[in-house]
Design a protein that fits this description.
The complex is a heterodimer of chains A (287) and B (257). Chain A has a single domain, classed as TIM Barrel (Alpha-Beta Barrel), CATH 3.20.20.150. Chain A is of the alpha/beta class and 287 residues long. In chain A, strand 7, helix 5 and strand 8 form a beta-alpha-beta unit. Chain B is mainly alpha-helical and 257 residues long. Chain B is 47% helix and 12% strand. Chain B has 11 helices and 5 strands. In chain B, a hairpin with a 2-residue loop joins strand 3 and strand 4. Classes of the chains: A alpha/beta (287), B mainly alpha (257). At the A-B interface, helix 3, strand 5, strand 6 and helix 4 of A face helix 1, helix 2 and helix 6 of B.
């Protein structure tokens, strides 16, 4: 396509682009490696798509879906897939990703990333839906590990094994959300480092970083909520450094969805991630 | 052990607070009860959709205030969960819901304001399809002119409302308290055509005759009948719709005569 930035996303830090920053990104073209958006925000026409077309001329783009419901026993929604396919044809993204979760059953959609039971049946359903999606989109996609607030009694597979099995069976890549690993590890009492070490290194195609909230109750109990509404916390930065040491340089995204701050805040977070990536590259060079 | 489909149905029933959901039996309760864990997901579901409705219905939100809007949205979401993962198409029934919403009875124009805002949102999100250009018609053999049928641009909505919802929404959104105070909500019905054209989203008030004509035009009545219905106004009205980008295509049906 004429006058368009390269499609490929290299292993640098990017930021999630949200509506409040459309204009400033178009006008100021901040120095950031790449941008990621939710395709669901651009499935119609008009202004949003006009902004995205313009921004795509200057930046590689990643589409990070939230509405496909790859974990639905009913299968994926053909209308949603068709809309996603049209947008992919239009903006030629470097990466396309979705979540290990479900959102819809029957004709009802819950607009949230709901937790799957980690069973052989669910694994088969997820893989069937990913196979169909990858075939339809004619491309490999990345699947992100979720933040969860509950576990099912009948789950039999640890989440890290489930993620690895999905990648092995479907050939999809893994979007390792380090914040989600941390949030779920705290909420369910597993070892975050063990989770990272269990993921197949060669499948990691992207890393996500975001802020979360520690919700404390009067009786001393607490739970971590993945609300993407603050800076990445120190524990997650530390876990990210571990992840980069394990996986090597991987394209890394700063996500912020609630109370979106000025663009400069996102760029500072991205610069922090970039510094950790660079430190790892330097170490690897010395070794 | 529940099958995945069964489990997802039970989860859905709990999200919609339906009685008899068995989902709790399947959830591990270490530290937090199943109900507490489910509430986190239900809260996100409500917060996301309430925010989506507030974005689509900003004038309704300002007219009734945050708490009232949240309460109305909660009931609406329960009764009408989304049917797809494309949230821009969510919430089209909010106007009809508000018309029957008991606490809104003292604001009889509220549902019309919502219907108007839905038309604006619908126009904003409609697909980018080029409008029909008048010169495309010059290629049509005059023999077929009588059988020409037009199709409206996908952004177009025709609204027949009991209250001047366009004026109310404009006054509310511009924060013009003086205009709002002077506004006569009972000034009678308005007929509107809302669409997204070359100049952006546009809402125009129509006289009853023009509204009836454009309704027939957009419903795909053949040109011959359109001309018969309004011989004097039809050419100018059709030309105006073309200029404004309100038509998307034409077709000629062979069986027509």
């Amino acid at each position: 396509m004429h006058g368009r930035a390269r499609a490929g996303i290299v292993a640098t830090a990017g930021i999630g682009l949200r509506f409040p920053h459309h204009r400033i990104v178009r006008e100021e073209r901040p120095a950031v490696g790449w941008l990621e958006v939710h395709p669901e925000n651009y499935m119609g026409g008009g202004k949003p798509l006009e902004h995205l077309d313009a921004i795509r001329r200057d930046y590689p783009l990643s589409l990070h879906g939230v509405g496909l419901s790859l974990g639905s026993a009913d299968g994926v929604d053909e209308r949603h897939l068709a809309r996603l396919e049209r947008l992919i044809e239009r903006v030629e993204p470097g990466l396309v990703s979705e979540h290990l979760s479900w959102s819809a059953v029957g004709d009802k959609h819950f607009a949230d990333l709901l937790p799957l039971p980690l069973t052989e049946e669910a694994l088969a359903a997820v893989c069937r839906n990913i196979d169909l999606t990858q075939e339809r989109l004619k491309r490999r996609m990345l699947i992100e590990n979720p933040s969860t607030y509950l576990r099912y009694r009948h789950s039999t597979v640890p989440e890290w094994e489930f993620m690895a099995a999905v990648a092995a069976r479907t050939g999809c890549g893994i979007l390792c959300d380090v914040n989600n690993v941390f949030v779920s590890a705290c909420n369910h009492g597993f070892d975050a480092d063990r989770y990272l070490r269990a993921l197949p290194r060669q499948s990691i195609g992207e890393i996500h970083l975001a802020g979360h909230t520690l919700r404390k109750f009067d009786d001393g109990r607490s739970i971590r909520i993945d609300d993407h509404g603050s800076c990445v916390c120190p524990e997650v930065w530390a876990l990210y450094a571990d992840a980069v040491a394990l996986f090597g340089r991987v394209a890394t995204l700063i996500e912020w969805d609630t109370d979106v701050p000025p663009l400069a805040v996102l760029l500072e977070e991205a610069a922090h991630a970039e510094a950790i990536l660079n430190a790892e590259s330097a170490d690897a060079g010395v070794a | 052990m529940p099958a995945l489909h069964e489990l997802q149905q039970a989860f859905a029933a709990s999200m919609l607070l339906e009685q008899g959901s068995v989902i709790c039996n399947h959830i591990i309760e270490d530290g937090f009860s199943a109900a507490e864990r489910l509430r986190i997901y239900r809260n996100t579901f409500h917060a996301t959709l309430t925010a989506a409705l507030r974005m689509t219905y900003p004038a309704v939100d300002r007219l009734v205030g945050r708490d009232f809007f949240d309460a109305a949205a909660e009931q609406f979401i329960h009764a009408n969960p989304p049917s797809s993962g494309y949230l821009n198409e969510y919430g089209g029934g909010f106007g009809d819901f508000l018309a029957a919403f008991e606490p809104a009875r003292t604001l009889p124009y509220l549902s019309d304001v919502a219907r108007f805002e839905w038309a604006l949102s619908f126009a904003a999100n409609a697909p980018d399809l080029p409008a029909l250009q008048a010169n495309a018609l010059t290629a049509v053999d005059p023999e077929y002119h009588a059988r020409l049928r037009f199709e409206p641009h996908p952004s177009l909505r025709l609204l027949g409302l009991d209250y001047p919802a366009d004026e109310i929404a404009d006054a509310v959104m511009s924060g013009d308290d003086a205009a709002l105070a002077e506004l006569d909500a009972s000034s009678g019905p308005v007929r509107l055509v809302v669409h997204r054209g070359p100049d952006g989203i546009e809402s125009q008030r129509l006289e009853p005759a023009a509204f009836a004509f454009i309704s027939r035009l957009c419903a795909g009545e053949p040109l011959e009948r359109l001309l018969e219905s309004a011989p004097a106004q039809a050419p100018a009205l059709i030309a105006e719709q073309l200029t404004k980008g309100r038509l998307e295509a034409f077709r000629i049906e062979k069986g027509d005569s």
